[in-house]
């Protein structure tokens, strides 16, 4: 659905903000484009939207090259930019009407625009001026605006930036819904790892303009996990820690937020992991301690991000 080939951008001052970037986003993906501030996310997304001309390389949207097909591409995509130029005097409905008219040579579709406002949770705000909206409401209106032309793809640049946790959650749910019920492909940039983790099926991590990793979250969890890890809570974690340290094939034990994080040696088979678990449970119970909770720990997006960027530093990735 979205493909870039050796994409590069050098700004007029000679700064190379994006280097040799090849991406592949499939139809129906919620694709997270991740990287620290200044990594080149906004530069890239603007090239995908056709708002910025690449210095080198190509962007294909739905198999069509962006360069030379600007108006066809504009009909296929919706864009929620990093910062919007809102027309503060307009009401929410007028704002959508304005963009609807741009796409449809004038005209209006009251029913459709009302349905869009309802979709983003602003049904009762249709006649309120945008100037009175909170940041979260503006962001949701921006998403409605991006949907006005019934796009197949929407691009969002840091859509949850500056929102409180509730606002972030609302945007995540809205994007999830748009993707699931309308089948819209979503390309989202963020420097907030949590955002990406809950929302995206695929991610790409860039740093200093270059791609460092790309894949599904599951693939990255598999790739970067060293050994099987679990979290354990017992009636006496300190005592348990001492017992677990003595077990074979346990590489590390550490306290973490009132729990014990236990990492097995890497490269163990499923059977070996199972026998470590058995020995661990036996050791704890036979010493008169209780197990309150025991869970398999998967890598968070944050764990992966640090592993990816550290590995790169050491020249592994
Ligand atoms: N118009 C410009 N001219 C020169 N350098 C720029 C311009 N816009 C952005 N940059 C630089 O390019 C790099 C990437 O910026 P950007 O794409 O905005 O990163 P991100 O969105 O990941 O924070 C930064 O170092 C930024 O300072
Ligand atoms: Mg940015």
Radius of gyration: 24 Å
Label the overall shape. Answer: elongated
Largest sheet: 6 strands, mixed
Treating each run of at least 4 consecutive H or I residues as one helix, how many helices? Answer: 11
The low-pLDDT segments are none
Content of β-strand: 25-35%
Strand order of the largest sheet: 7-8-9-4-10-11
- Bound molecule kinds, no repeats: adenosine-5'-diphosphate, magnesium ion
Keywords:
five-stranded antiparallel sheet; 317 residues; 11 helices; binds magnesium ion; 38% helix; alpha/beta; binds adenosine-5'-diphosphate; six-stranded mixed sheet
Topology:
Layout: E1 2-10, E2 16-21, E3 24-25, E4 30-34, H1 41-48, E5 56-61, E6 64-65, H2 70-76, E7 77-80, H3 92-103, H4 110-119, H5 135-146, E8 153-157, H6 165-182, E9 185-190, H7 193-199, E10 202-207, E11 210-216, H8 217-224, E12 227-234, H9 237-245, E13 250-256, E14 259-266, H10 270-286, E15 291-296, H11 301-313
Parallel strand pairs: 4-9, 4-10, 7-8, 8-9
Antiparallel strand pairs: 1-2, 1-3, 1-5, 5-6, 10-11, 12-14, 12-15, 13-14
Adenosine-5'-diphosphate binds next to α1.
Please sum up the structure shown.
Helices cover 38% and strands 27% of the residues. With 317 residues, it is of the alpha/beta class.
Structure report:
This protein is α/β, with parallel strands linked by helices and 317 residues long. The chain has helices at 41-48, 70-76, 92-103, 110-119, 135-146, 165-182, 193-199, 217-224, 237-245, 270-286, 301-313, and strands at residues 2-10, 16-21, 24-25, 30-34, 56-61, 64-65, 77-80, 153-157, 185-190, 202-207, 210-216, 227-234, 250-256, 259-266, 291-296. The strands form 3 sheets. A 6-stranded mixed beta sheet has the order 7-8-9-4-10-11, sandwiched between helices. Strands 1, 2, 3, 5 and 6 form a 5-stranded antiparallel beta sheet that branches. Helix 3 (92-103) packs across helix 4 (110-119), helix 5 runs parallel beside helix 6 (165-182) and helix 8 (217-224) crosses helix 11 (301-313). The chain is elongated and about 75 Å long. The relative contact order is 0.13. Magnesium ion is lined by residues 41-42, 82, 157-158.
């Amino acid at each position: 659905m979205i493909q870039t080939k050796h994409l590069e951008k050098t700004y007029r001052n000679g700064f190379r903000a994006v280097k040799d970037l090849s991406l592949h986003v499939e139809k129906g993906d919620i694709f997270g484009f991740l990287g620290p501030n200044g990594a080149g996310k906004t530069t890239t997304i603007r090239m995908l939207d056709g708002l910025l001309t690449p210095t080198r390389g190509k962007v294909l949207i739905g198999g069509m090259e962006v360069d030379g097909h600007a108006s066809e591409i504009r009909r296929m995509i919706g864009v929620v930019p990093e910062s919007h130029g809102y027309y503060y005097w307009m009401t929410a409905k007028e704002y959508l009407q304005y963009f609807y008219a741009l796409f449809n040579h004038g005209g209006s579709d009251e029913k459709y625009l009302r349905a869009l406002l309802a979709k983003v949770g602003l049904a009762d705000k249709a006649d309120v001026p945008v100037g009175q909206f909170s940041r979260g409401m503006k962001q949701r209106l921006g998403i409605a605006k991006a949907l006005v032309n019934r796009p197949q793809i929407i691009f969002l640049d840091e859509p949850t930036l500056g929102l409180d946790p509730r606002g972030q959650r609302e945007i995540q749910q809205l994007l999830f819904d748009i993707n699931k019920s309308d089948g819209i492909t979503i390309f989202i940039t963020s420097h907030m790892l949590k955002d990406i983790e809950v929302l995206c099926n695929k991610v790409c991590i860039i740093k200093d303009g270059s791609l460092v990793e790309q894949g599904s979250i599951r693939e990255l969890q598999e790739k970067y996990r060293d050994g099987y890890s679990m979290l354990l809570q017992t009636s006496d974690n300190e005592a348990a820690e001492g017992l677990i340290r003595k077990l074979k094939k346990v590489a590390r034990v550490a306290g973490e937020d009132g729990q014990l994080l236990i990492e097995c040696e890497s490269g163990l088979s499923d059977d070996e992991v199972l026998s470590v678990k058995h020995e661990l449970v036996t050791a704890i119970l036979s010493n008169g301690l209780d197990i309150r909770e025991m869970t398999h720990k998967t890598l968070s997006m944050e764990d992966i991000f640090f592993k990816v960027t550290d590995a790169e530093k050491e020249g592994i990735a």
